[in-house]
Amino acid sequence: MLNEVITSEEEYVGTLTFLMVECKDILVARLGLSAEEFNEIFGCVEAIYMLHCSLLKELQERFRTRANPTFQFGDVLCKYLPFFRVYSSYIRNLDGHRNQLIELKSDGKLGSFKSTLKQNETGYSKKYSPKTLQYLFNIELADYMNIPNQRLFHYDLILSRYAKSLNTSNADYKPIREAIGMYRQILNKINQEFGENELKKCMELEKKFGGVVRPRRKFKGEFPASYWAGGSRMLDCRIYIMNDMLLIVDAIKGTMIKRVRMDAQSWFHKINVGKNISTAIFVKGMEGCYQTVFLSDYYMEEFLGVISKLFLDIPNRLSLKNEKPMMIIRPVSVSRQGTQCIFTLYIKIHGAKGGVFNNYTVPELEIVMEHLIAKHGKLFKTLE
Questions:
Q1: Which single residue of 42, 52, 76, 326 could bond 350 by disulfide (Cβ 3.0 to 4.6 Å)?
Q2: Is 82 exposed, middle or buried (0-12, 13-18, 19+ CB in 10 A)?
């Protein structure tokens, strides 16, 4: 768990370094963006970059002493967490800066950014991890602006996992919990400050698609993903998450692909994936609505973190934990055969022996699950 904290911070700083060094070189030196324009758009990110370079340096130095019985680095986090207030300015201007990059691209000024990246791939591979490059080469330039936002909300997951791995006698037991408490206070202040931004995002989606703004509905986040549209068609999409609804939108056309309403019986399940496919998320919404979306590993943990907190907002969700499931359904794996995505399922009806069922396509899977739910009752769950 300790290694995860360090390596994830190294990946984050590596990604920010790419943005502030390599992207600046391409945008300013090669594509004609002025230094003033770059600083206007990326200035807040530069402040975050400098903060995390310093934080990472101290974490790495402390990590070298981990064999010491008194080892701790919660105190290092406590030292730097007050400076996380720089994220407030960044988030305040995030949408505006993303829109600037989108407009510059539509004007043709940044049209060759991706091809220029590819030309320098060999050189980058000597300086950056394959994971960092795979992620950055597969998202749009405007999405680079989301990277600090995604990382900010990721700390709760990795720090909580590390804290749970420590016993009460560990020297880092109290410092890391103090750091988590400080982090959550900072995050709450940011959330309170930008609660208006959630409403603003819902209003933007309402204007585009309708049926979005509702009492007590909250915007939780958005992620780039892929959507299986039948046959061999995989569409680039964006997933917009509300506390009771999921919107899947075509990333190119900006049109609605699917609207998935969610209630106490809804669930998401991470599925092991075959080669050449990003990690799959199988979604069960209301009214027998099943969807499968594919996310890169970079986004997966953050996505699952948002979803795990999301269900706390759905009425009666937790009451299901005390119910005895009549049916257990677990998607075991998914792979691609020709133009089809093929699922393997584990299905167990209460009181009967479970079994593994192979070679279900997505349409067949939807039909099977609708039939099982109709026949054996609405109460079911997935295995972790």
A1: 326
A2: exposed
Using the Cα atoms of residue 16, residue 90, residue 139 and residue 305 in order, give the sign of their dihedral. Answer: positive
- Going by their DSSP bridges, the two strands 279-284 and 340-349 should be labelled as unpaired
- Residue 176 is which amino acid? I
Q: Give pLDDT tens digits for 275-292.
A: 444 566 667 676 656 666
End-to-end CA distance of the chain: 20
pLDDT per position as a tens digit, 52-78: 999 999 999 999 888 888 888 899 999
In the 3-class helix/strand/coil scheme, how is 259-304 assigned residue by residue? EEECCCCCEEEEEEECCCCCEEEEEECCCCCEEEEEECHHHHHHHH
Alpha helices in the chain (DSSP H): 2-17, 24, 35-63, 74-80, 86-106, 113-119, 121-125, 130-136, 141-144, 147-152, 155-164, 173-193, 195-209, 297-310, 362-376
Cα 42 vs. chain centroid, distance in angstroms?
22
Evaluate whether the domain defined by 2-193 bears CATH number 3.30.360.10: no
The token pair at 94 is 């995030």
Q: In the chain, pLDDT over 90 holds for what percent of residues?
A: 16
Count other C-beta atoms under 10 Å from residue 371's C-beta: 10
- Domain ranges, ordered by start, for the chain: 2-193, 197-381
Which amino acid makes up residue 279? Answer: T
Multiple choice CATH, 197-381, 2.30.29.30, 2.60.40.10, 3.40.430.10, 3.10.120.10? 2.30.29.30
Q: Measured between alpha carbons, how far is 384 from 366 in angstroms, rounded to an integer?
A: 20
Q: Give the C-alpha separation, 222 to 208, whole Å.
A: 15
What's the Cα-to-Cα distance from 151 to each of 6, 69, 96, 185, 334, rounded to whole Å? Answer: 13, 30, 19, 16, 28
